[in-house]
Amino acid sequence: MSALLEVNALSKRFGGVQAVADLNFTVGQGEILALIGPNGAGKSTVFNLINGVFAPDSGRIVFEGREITGKPTYEIAHRGIARAHQIVQPLAGLSVLDNCLVGACYGRDNLSMAAGRKVVREVAELVGLEDRLEMPAGQLTTAGKKRLELARALCGRPHLLLLDEVLAGLNPTEIERMIEVIRAIRARGVSILIIEHVMRAIMSLSDRVVALNLGRNLAEGSPQQVVNHPAVIEAYLGDPKLMAMSEAAPS
Amino acid sequence: MTVSTDIGRNDLDGKSLGEKNLGEKIPAFDIAAPRRVFPALIVLFGVLFALVPYWGDDVGLRESFLLAAVYITLATNLNVMIGYAGYINFGNIVFFGLGGYVCVDLVTRWHWPLVAAGPMAGVAVSLLALVFGSGILRLRGAFFALATIGVNEAVRQFVANFEPWGGATGIYLSFDAYEPLGGPMAALWTVYFLLVGVMVLSLLLSYAIKTSKFGLGLLAIGQNEDAAGVLGVRTPRHKALAYSASAFFPAVAGGLFFFKSGIIEPNGAFDLTLSIEAIVMIMLGGYGTVTGPLLGAFLYEELRGYLLTSPTVSQLQLVIAGALLLAMVLFAPGGLVGFIHQRWPRSRIILQ
Amino acid sequence: MIGVLASVIDGVLVGAVYGLAAMGLTLIWGVMRVINLTHGAMIVLGMFIAYYLSKVAGLSPYEGIPIVVVVAFAAGVGIYWIAVDRVIGRPILMSLLATFACNMILIGIGTALWTTSPYNIPVSLPGISWQGYTFTGTHMMAAAFAGLIAGLLYLFLNHARYGKAIRAVASNREAAELSGIPTKQVLAVTFGLGVALACAAGALIATLFPFTVLSGSNYQLKSFVVTVLGGLGNPAGALLGGIALGLVEGLATPFMPVSWTPIIEFALFVIVLVAFPRGIFALSRG
Q1: Do C90 and B315 touch (CB under 8 A)?
Q2: Which residues partner with B333 through β-bridges?
Q3: Whose CB among A50, B215, C259, C277 lies 3.0–4.6 Å from B209's, allowing a Cys bridge?
């Protein structure tokens, strides 16, 4: 399986804090890779570096064989990487449909409005927003806004989807629903890089897991391997999520 | 690589204009599928606008309508930046003034016919705007706004010192400039019709942008520029194109207006007060819509005409405009059209 | 050479006052993310208050500064409650327009009251002569006051309880609210403070140069340049930036006609913003 995304020796410093240090990992074609780590481990920064919000201080990011290090956000979107943010950013004054339409028309395929609308309706059904297309995005519930983040990203027909804590703040039913949606997305051939704290989801969704701490690689492997890795357990020590982890992972 | 600064974004709470202003579940902007009805209405409006003074041969009415047409043109094009892209162009009058100068210069010095000089002024100013815009559009929020004032002032200073354009005294048009159009009387009517045409084209352009993919990108930028970028909107290029496009018709209007006025000089051409009044008109009528600036310009012109009749009040023109703007921003940010949309949701289809 | 040096020193002294004005602007931005477009009008207000205090009550502007500060603070709080409070959470377009509208109203009233004629406050202070050049007493006094007020602000923000509350609101408004700080009140007070600083600077500028109702826009532009030089939300940077701007002006004045200064400052403003989005002085803090 050829690597879809390669991150090599990535580093980024903010003022006095080394957010990411010499990070390496790859995402394979059709894979769901989870990035885990305690708070402050640098996970969101990694996403910011991949999708062009910041440029790294050093290191390379290669997507589909072409270098994307330091390119602006819109360029990354055109290459086929889309992102659903942890802190939702709906275009509040526009309708749900128009939000998604932006994603569709300006994403990888540069669609016309008419073609874009078709994609939007399709994606809205997949994600469960089809009944709210005319609603102003600012008026959605939190769960709705999270779905919109996902839908909007998906409308760009990306090859790689960056999901940043899309399950946060959802109740168990909504989480289950979302997990199904994510599986359905992967089934359509989209590779997924996911940051999550809901361990149950990580265990059931991801093919591989990369654990970070303090911006550095900590461990890598199957979900079982990583979750039982001594260094990972130590990094999470004292972290309430550790309990969740050890409960989720059959030894 | 630009770090996302906080300048352009609203980050104290996620609420947007759409949410606070429109209690019902209506998006603040509606990118309806293009309908033929609305453009037809615009054209009809323009035809009536042109013919009403003509049928009555009413010169006073014509002058009043001419001014209205200028205001509507300015407000409508400015709305592309303010209402769609969310960038306040305080110094928008620079397009009008510069267009005026280019056109008048072409007619007086180079003996171009008006019908060529006008569009040429538009082209020249748009190109300049593209260049300048690319620079100052890197600034966000208030900094962009102030930079536009700076551009206006800098251009005014430059022109006031530019001898080929008459320096501080400006350029006068002699009567024979109007001969090709059949003499001064006929010329005034011709210019009027041309200006109405420019106004109609501005309205159509505004509608075309709003319902196009380009406009969708602009509106996204206006809602959240960073998010728009992540979704793939090429924000620098989009903004520069919008800025440039919003310069074209004001420049042509300026060319026509000053040609008709017979004189152009730096202070009158780059009058910041008119620039600001255009903003008030947009907020009054409803920003982000096509009809908003139209209604706002009409209302404001009526109000202004009414106020100017009283000598004391005319001193306070700026105060009243300011108070009006403040009231709109605080209590009715959607303007008149926003209010109508809220009250009668079906009006959104006709009143774009 | 001495002439240029004298001009530079002069510029630095005046620059301290620019810095003071800019501190007001940057404080308001730092705490509530609002760009106060009434800033110029407030500077003018300070000038006129000082003028009337001098004319009517015979107070020197320096003696009048406490009064200016108090009046300005009240005005600032008033403006906050009338115009700014409602637009705090909204898109930045709205707060820009709201403060701009206030500016229009104030300048309009000012023009009606005072027309656009120049005013002047005659202040004479002994200067220091050196090598044939005199460093005017007014410049030195103005710089001294600017420094004093800036110092007081620093002490307030860093050591007074309320000052710390202001900094808490600036850094995270929700958290501050949750820990019991009355954030709306803090915002109003901060706005009042920011305006007071602008007015105080205006009063000091009035001792240096003649002024009109319309002078505000010129100094507002300078404040903006200084703010971007020093980095938004950074009062110390604002003071340094003011001195830097004064230095640039001091260097330029011997060689250039005065009417060019606003254009140069505007160009500087755009260049700095485009090249150093977080301010030149912010760079050194990493």
Answers
A1: no
A2: none
A3: B215
pLDDT at C145 over 80: yes
Q: What is the pLDDT of residues B22-35, one digit of tens each?
A: 334 455 565 554 56
Domain limits of chain A?
A: 1-80+160-251, 88-158
Chain A residue numbers with beta carbons less than 8 Å from the beta carbon of B22 are 136
Window 131-150 of B: residues touching C by CB (8 A cutoff) are 135-136, 138-139, 141-143, 145-147, 150
C69 Cα to chain B: minimum distance (Å)? 25
- The neighbour count for residue B28, using CB atoms within 10 Å, is 28
CB contact under 8 A, B330 and C277: no
Chains with at least 3 CB pairs less than 8 angstroms from chain B = A, C
Residue with tokens 């995005």: A137
**H runs (alpha helix) in chain A:** 43-50, 73-79, 96-106, 113-127, 142-155, 172-187, 199-205, 223-227, 230-235, 240-248
Distance of CA B274 to the CA centre of its chain: 10
Determine contact: B313 vs chain C, CB below 8 A.
no
Q: Evaluate if residue B3 carries a pLDDT over 60.
A: no
Neighbours of chain A (3+ CB pairs under 8 A): B, C
Q: How far is A83 from chain B (nearest CA, A)?
A: 8
Helices and strands of chain A, counted as H and E runs: 10, 10
Q: C285 and A15 in contact by Cβ < 8 A?
A: yes
Helix (H) or strand (E) holding A58: strand A58-63
Q: Give me B64's structure tokens.
A: 């009043």
Could you tell me if C270 lies within 8 Å of chain B, comparing CB atoms?
yes
Reported as a single tens digit per residue, the pLDDT across B167-211 is 888 999 888 888 888 888 888 999 999 999 999 999 999 999 999
CA C79 to CA C67: how far, in whole Å?
A: 18
Rounded to whole angstroms, the maximal C-alpha distance in chain C is: 62
Pairing of strands A160-164, A81-84: parallel
Q: Measured on CA atoms in the order C75, C77, C82, C87, is the torsion positive or negative? A: positive
Check CB contact under 8 Å for B318 and C89.
Answer: no
Q: Is A250 on the interface with C (CB under 8 A)?
A: no
pLDDT confidence of C122, banded at 50, 70, 90? confident
In which residue ranges of chain A is pLDDT below 50?
1, 251
pLDDT for the residue C275: 74
Mutation target among B10, B79, B92, B137 for the C interface, most CBs of C within 10 A? B10
Nearest CA to A160 among A230, A62, A57? A62
A91: chain C residues, CB-CB within 8 Å: none
**Residue contact B19–A139, C-beta within 8 A:** yes
pTM score, whole prediction = 0.85
In B, minimum Cα distance to C112 occurs at B315
pLDDT, tens digit, for every residue of B94-138? 999 999 999 999 999 999 999 999 999 999 999 999 998 888 888
Which of residues 217 through 256 in chain B touch A, CB cutoff 8 A? 217, 219-220, 222-224, 226-235
Mean pLDDT along residues B289-318: 81
More confident residue, B154 or B244: B244
Compute the C-alpha angle A219/A240/A232, nearest 5°.
10
Q: Which residues share a beta bridge with B253?
A: none
Interface confidence (ipTM) of the complex: 0.89
Residues from chain B contacting residue C87 (CB–CB below 8 Å): 329-330
In terms of CATH, what superfamily is A1-80+160-251?
P-loop containing nucleotide triphosphate hydrolases (3.40.50.300)
Residue A158 CB coordination number (10 Å): 25
Q: Is the pLDDT of residue B338 over 60?
A: yes
Q: Which residue of C has its CA nearest to B283?
A: C97
